Amino acid sequence: MSQPIITLYDIPSTVPQPWAPSIWRIRFILNYKRLHYRTVWIDFSDVEATLRSINAPPTSYKSDGRPVYSLPVIIDPIRTSPVVLSNANIIADYLELTYPARPVFPDGSRALQSLFVHYIQETFARPLLPILVPLTHQALPERSQAHFRGAGAGPSSVQMTGQQREQAWRAVKEQFDFLASILDKNTGSDGNGVVAMGHDVSYADFALCSVLIWIERVSPHDGWARVRQWNNQRWVRLWEKCRDYMDAL
């Protein structure tokens, strides 16, 4: 029997697509596991209505109990009743369990990788937000820009001077320097110091490289030009390690 085609929902923009880091984490896994999938592009303003229409579970809930719908979302028609999932980490766990070939969680690494990915999302990437969120807003279609502003995430939330921008990039570099010092512990006979698990790429690397892609897609001449030079070009080497899994089958 032919392999079912998974549907991955993503956000369109005017920059080279795709760009969203949380969705890239899933795209990497699909590509790495050599799974067949198609991408459905939906504007920010249509996300909630679209996800409700396919019975996707909410990603979270607001303090008043209202559900929040966000991407990534996948539909896997593997069973008679298709599996519809949201939340990048939940989707990653599902894909690993359902399609165990070419694992992204080597034996015994799931807990530590989960901590690593949480750090990438909640701490490492946070200084990038005031820089990249306004640039991302500018790259969205007009309908999505209006929705982005309504959510308080548009350019009106941050207006930086040149000095403030440099200060923001210094805060970003502090995070990159710290992570480089941790990954350097893998350097030596037992590892190359580029990937989190020492030798082979894993979910942790995909989470980190997804942030690099976001920088490169929305700020190629400023952000990526800076980052690629940092830490002895470590991040370019990680990019190259993940390059084979940036293109779908």
Average pLDDT confidence is 89
Question: Can you count the helices?
Answer: 10
CATH hierarchy class name of the largest domain: Mainly Alpha
CATH topology of the largest domain: Glutathione S-transferase Yfyf (Class Pi), Chain A, domain 2
Termini separation:
18 Å
Structural class: alpha+beta
Shape: globular
Please estimate the helix content. 40-55%
Largest beta sheet: strand ordering: 2-1-5-6
Order of helices and strands: EHEHEEEEHHHHHHHH
The CATH architecture assignment of the largest domain turns out to be Up-down Bundle
Global Rg = 18 Å
| Whole-number total of structural domains | 2
The main pleated sheet reads as: 4 strands, mixed
Instruction: Provide the β-strand percentage band.
Output: 5-15%
Number of strands: 6
Low-confidence stretches: 149-157
In short:
The protein is of the alpha+beta class. Helices cover 47% and strands 9% of the residues. The chain has helices spanning 21-32, 47-53, 88-98, 110-124, 129-139, 142-150, 162-183, 203-218, 223-227, 234-242, and strands at 6-10, 37-41, 60-61, 67-68, 73-76, 83-86.
Helices and strands in order:
Blueprint: E1 6-10, H1 21-32, E2 37-41, H2 47-53, E3 60-61, E4 67-68, E5 73-76, E6 83-86, H3 88-98, H4 110-124, H5 129-139, H6 142-150, H7 162-183, H8 203-218, H9 223-227, H10 234-242
Parallel strand pairs: 1-2
Antiparallel strand pairs: 1-5, 3-4, 5-6
Helix pairs in contact: 1-3, 1-8, 4-8, 8-10
Structure description:
- The protein is of the alpha+beta class and 249 residues long.
- The protein has two domains: 93 residues, Glutaredoxin, CATH 3.40.30.10; 136 residues, Up-down Bundle (Glutathione S-transferase Yfyf (Class Pi), Chain A, domain 2).
- It is built from ten helices and six strands.
- The strands form two sheets. The chain has a four-stranded mixed sheet with strand order 2-1-5-6, covered by helices on one side.
- Strand 3 and strand 4 form a beta hairpin.
- Helix 1 crosses helix 8.
- The longest helix is centred in the last third of the chain and has 22 residues.
- The radius of gyration is 18 Å and the shape is globular.
- 33% of the residues are buried.
- About 4% of the residues have low confidence.
- InterPro entries: Glutathione-S-Trfase_C_sf, GST_UstS-like_C, Thioredoxin-like_sf.
- This is Glutathione S-transferase UstS-like C-terminal domain-containing protein.
